[in-house]
Amino acid sequence: MKDSSTAAVNMNMKAAKKERPARMRLESLKRNKLLYLMILPGVLYFIIFKYLPMGGLVIAFQDYQPYQGITGSPWVGFKHFIRLFTEPTFFMLLSNTLILFALNIVIFFPLPIILALMLNEVRHKLFKNAVQTIIYIPHFMSWVIIVSITYVFLTVDGGVFNEMLAALGLPKISFLTSPEWLRTVYIGQVIWKELGWSTIIYLAAITVVDTQLYEAAEMDGAGRLRKTWHVTLPAIRPVIITLLILKIGSTLDLGFEHMYLLLNSLNREVAEIFDTYIYTAGLKNGQLSFSTTVGLFKGLVGLILVMLSNRLAKKFGEDGVY
Amino acid sequence: MKKMVKKMAALAICSALVLTACGEKEKAAGGTTGSGSDANAKTSITWLNILHTASPPTDTIIKKIEEKTNAEVKFSWIPDASKEERINTSLASDSLADIVTLTILDNSSVRNALKSGMFWEVEPYLNEFPNLAKISEDTRRSASIAGKLYGIPFQKDLARNGVVIRKDWLDKVGLPVPKTLDELMEVAKAFTEKDPDGNGKNDTTGFMDRSDLVYGAFKTLGSYMGVPNYWKVSEDGKMTPEFDTEEYVKTMDYMKKLYDNGYINQDFAVTAKTDQQQKFAQGKAGIYVGALFDSKNLKNMAKGVQDNMELVLANNITPTGSESERHIWAGNNGIGGLLAFPKSEVKDEAELKRVLKFVNDLMDDDMYALMTYGIKDVHYKVDENDAATIINQDLWQQEVQPFASSRPNETGYKIHDSDPLKAESDKLIKENAKYAVLNPAYSLESETYSTQGSELQKIITDATYKYILGKIDLNGFKDAVENWKKSGGSKIIAEYEEAYKAAKK
Questions:
Q1: Which residues cross the membrane (chain A) (predicted)?
Q2: Among A188, A157, A156, A185, which Cα is nearest to A263's?
Q3: Domain A78-315: CATH class, spelled out
């Protein structure tokens, strides 16, 4: 009942929006000028720090030399794009980036939801809070520390894990230098660091679920699992979809720092991703134009993925992020 | 309501004003160079410098430097580990200082910046200053780019690398100090298998190496094997990269044997320098290959952990033990980089001369002592033979050590370290100079090398590690070399040969 009425109001508003003439809009602008003034700093921030610097992207079409500046550097058209797409490294970068992205979505993304649902079922308040706090902590550690800890655990030269394997009579595994283990180590570290932190939003969403719904479900004889499946999950579905789209938006941001620390000569074929490549090509070797090209390409891929997933979300009847 | 809006606007404007005012102030402070024409006035100098220690020094030594050079010095430190990106971004955004320490002269953007005329060419001025005039012609040529000297070269020892071995372990296993590569292998074997630390456990290895094919063991062992220093040039001017030689493969085989038999730490490909040194100091291995003077640090680090550690240095290892085969690679041909002076900061000749005078003064005997050992009777004491002993190690590390890499010249001073290991390593480093192999391409120009050289080098570095760890075989390595040539290596060879011919004329 309640639901249908709000939906009706929504419909009305949507219809009204479409028909509203320009004059009316101007009037509302005047009426709410204080509100508009208040968003001004935010808008300015985005213009100055996000949109204006985008102008710098033109150096992707130049042979940019810092001391000649954007105005003085020669224009080279699509030279850097051609180089990017014809170099054999391109497919390595693209596939490495996409595989890690897929792992992030398929393996990492559902975990916080499951954990949040499980925490939600914990009745002992003190225990629940303690667990929450403990699993947040890794989020505040830097990647340098986490990678160093893993190094101490996984190194073949006296690493705890390998010593355990040896004690069990198993052969040692060189986790840090074998390409086969890189992705496992990577995703394992991501889970360890971010799992607890990512549950926060889901837990917050769960707390606002109407308790009457649970009571009603109980009346109908639903057990815990049923309640979770039929009440909690549908209630937090919009949150899940929004977060998924946002996650996809940062697709190709797999964490430069993290990967850079894991990267070495022996796992480069699976570990080199766009971020690390941009860093070495652009900042270390000073090929500013070329690395801008790589960054631009990466940004475009991210944009396309967001638009696709947003459309998909709308198709499934959700709101999407825009 | 209206009043509030006005107030807010006023506040916004005020803060904007304050912000811009700050900005201007900073700008004024950034471009500091004494504008007074009086030669006796204090020069103020900013210096963008590389930091090789964990934290920047305190003011003590800077005050002394200022006193002695009659200048006001302001350092901006860049950690060595991030020097490439920091220097590149500084060059790109033109946020430099009066003096810029450039240590990566083969980096393309650094090279391009130098060639573009961003920095003063200093050669015409050198002879006006007594210490700078003494910089040898060879050094000047090696440090030049396209024939021009764009800064004061850091003068370092030609070849600093060698082998550091646990003497007490050698005695324990009953082996002499190795003179040939085979003997060195024997020592590594004995250190691994014969329980040199006598704890009854099989927990030691021969070598302790780190993930560095240049400053770690690989390049030095390669030198002993006869590998050229990056490039070999034949009499008719043909250039061959080091990894396209038989000796390079032999060195890889040597390392592979060490790895396969467990004579080297198995994770050397991912071991950092600090871990390497610490593990050596903890007695986990008995052979360290690196800068010979590291021996002193290793011994210091071992205090309280491995008190019976005795170290012996070796720099005369060859395939068969004959003197005629001795080689050791010269790091950057003895040039530690350039002290360069950007035209955007050092505006005119008069200013340039003031800054040059400052650098010249840094090379004086007392300044060398100050930047090496610190302040007499605070950090070190000295005997009648000019042998200096550090009396407060912690204080020295904190206040003095960071300046060691800022010394424009490190050779030819009377004062020396009284530490026997340091004295011994100084002696051997001097001896190394006789057998030093230079990189013939160091001052040659190759457009492809400066833009893609380090990208291409990755192909070789990766393949070398994979070969040593047994992930690819010789054919796989040969493929990598072919790949290197195809991806631009052939062009580098052609360009170097061209440049070599031009330089010979």
A1: 34-52, 98-119, 131-154, 195-214, 235-256, 288-308
A2: A185
A3: mainly alpha
A266 neighbors B471 (Cβ within 8 angstroms): yes
Evaluate whether ipTM surpasses 0.90.
no
Largest pairwise CA distance in chain A? 81
Is B202 touching A (CB cutoff 8 A)? no
Place of tokens 């054919």: B475
How far out from the chain centre does Cα B463 lie?
24
Cβ(B414)–Cβ(B473) under 8 Å? no
In tens, the pLDDT along B124-180 reads 999 999 999 988 888 888 888 878 899 999 988 889 999 999 999 999 999 999 999
- Report how far residue B460's alpha carbon sits from residue B465's, in angstroms, rounded to the nearest whole number: 9
Beta strands B71-79 and B43-51 are parallel
User: Does the CB of A174 have a partner CB in chain B at under 8 Å?
Assistant: yes
Chain A residue with minimum CA distance to B213: A265
- In the sheet that holds B380-382, the strands lie side by side as B380-382, B387-390, B416-417
Contacts of B367 (CB under 8 A, 6+ apart): B65, B68, B69, B361
Following DSSP, what letter does each residue of A179-247 receive, concatenated?
HHHHHHHHHHHHHHHHHHHHHHHHHHHHHTS-HHHHHHHHHTT--HHHHIIIIIHHHHHHHHHHHHHHH
Map out the domains of chain A as residue ranges.
78-315
Average pLDDT across chain B, whole number? 86
- Judging contacts by C-beta atoms under 8 Å, the chain A residues touching residue B211 are 264-265
pTM of the model: 0.79
Mutate which of B15, B96, B258, B267 to test chain A, going by most A C-beta atoms within 10 A?
B267
Nearest to A156 among B92, B267, B279 (CB): B267
A56 in reach of chain B (CB within 8 A): no
- Residue B415 in contact with residue B382, Cβ under 8 Å? yes
Token readout for B410 is: 């490190």
